[in-house]
Fold this sequence. Notes:
The chain is an alpha+beta fold. Helices cover 35% and strands 21% of the residues. It is built from 13 helices and 18 strands. Strands 1-2-6-3-7-17 form a six-stranded mixed sheet, with helices on both faces. A four-stranded antiparallel sheet has the order 11-13-9-14. A three-stranded antiparallel sheet has the order 4-5-18. Strand 1 and strand 2 form a beta hairpin. Helix 1 (3-22) packs across helix 13, helix 2 packs parallel to helix 3 (120-136) and helix 11 packs across helix 13. The longest helix is centred in the C-terminal third of the chain and has 23 residues, at 433-455. The protein is globular, with a radius of gyration of 23 Å. The chain starts with a helix and ends with a helix.
Amino acid sequence: MEIKNYIQENKNRFLEELFSLIRIPSISSQTEHKEDMVKCANRWKELLLEAGADKAEVMPTEGNPVVYGEKMINKDYPTVLVYGHYDVMPVDPIDEWNTKPFEPEIKDEIIWARGADDDKGQSFMQAKAFEYMVRSGKLQCNVKFMLEGEEEIGSGSLYGFCEKNKELLKADVILVSDTSMINKDTPSITAGLRGLGYIEVKVTGPKADLHSGLYGGAVANPINILCKMIAQLQDEDNRCTVPDFYKEVIELSQDERDLMAKAPFDEKSYLEVTGSPSLHGEKGYTTIERTGIRPSFDVCGIWGGYTGEGAKTVIPSTAHAKISFRLVPDQDFNVITERVKKHIEDIAPKCVKVEVIPLHGGYAYVSPLDLPAYKAAEKAMQKTYGKQPIPTRSGGSIPIVAGFERILGIKSILMGFGLGSDAIHSPNENYPLQQFFRGIESITYFYEEFAQLMKK
């Protein structure tokens, strides 16, 4: 049976199995969901065994468990290690959802739920493509699965897991479906990811909240100070002002920038997806360049004082901000984090106490376009979509991908099928059924093409 027919005959089962994962609120950043993490890992174990894995197990780590599965056909065959994650982002603000985030619904041929795309939907495509290859007798690769529960909080435990299990995880390539395509009609393969640094800043003034009439104008307001400090971290050209922030950034040649410019970009559609009134970013670069080859600097959250209903006239004791900076190849997140920390401490006035807390980070990653696995992914997507996929560099980060190369010595192929409209990390996350089914189809072709290329 051909893959398209197999999908058609089994699509309802596929969706119900996926929904059994989505219904588990596996939010890794919230401790009240610790049991849900284990529950989701065990459900993944069941699904891998049902799909055809010879063995699958839930393996402990210092944090959330890793689900490992494998089907080893022949030691002389190439081995593909499939990576994905079963943890999801929090659902706040809940009142902006049009559906219940953990009760998946299909409307207008789209799955609406937290994790529909990132990464339960995309990881599950891998399981179903594997299932087809096993049941059809077409699988000519050894396949291993590694599904973690901490990607959304930095994959902290997975680095140690990889160090301890290098032999178990040996493979020729790591296959990842956790990225996006340019649009539903323009296939693309992510050939690069930005790195990441993430910090929290705490500004402390008085020992307790003070009456803003009795003390206003006489003592420092931590929120005012924090806002002034943040305003100093970017200039009028939207460049980060931290000394040496760009020191290691590699400037692409004009030929390379011209090649990137061939990727289709529709400003109107981009603005419709974001809901922003206009484009904004570092002067001298296009939107594609700003999100692919340039670092960025963003405040992700800021809070302090009274934010409830009505008025409460206080000078708050503390103010907080969470700040992320996306990084490009050759920028070491540890070095950049230290530079950012020092600069924030240097510009802090003496009327407050400022504490900078590094939270997590990761390196950027680039995949060569001449790898056999890249060529296999290219041919696979061309079969499905009828056109050659475009190599792109993603603005997002999957820090562990660079970690895989450093620890395991294995390159990764980022073969994702998400869309910019999928609202990952936001209310109303969604995933079109067409992308879900085309992803399964393309991944089966990848196995066929990769096996052939590795035999040559």
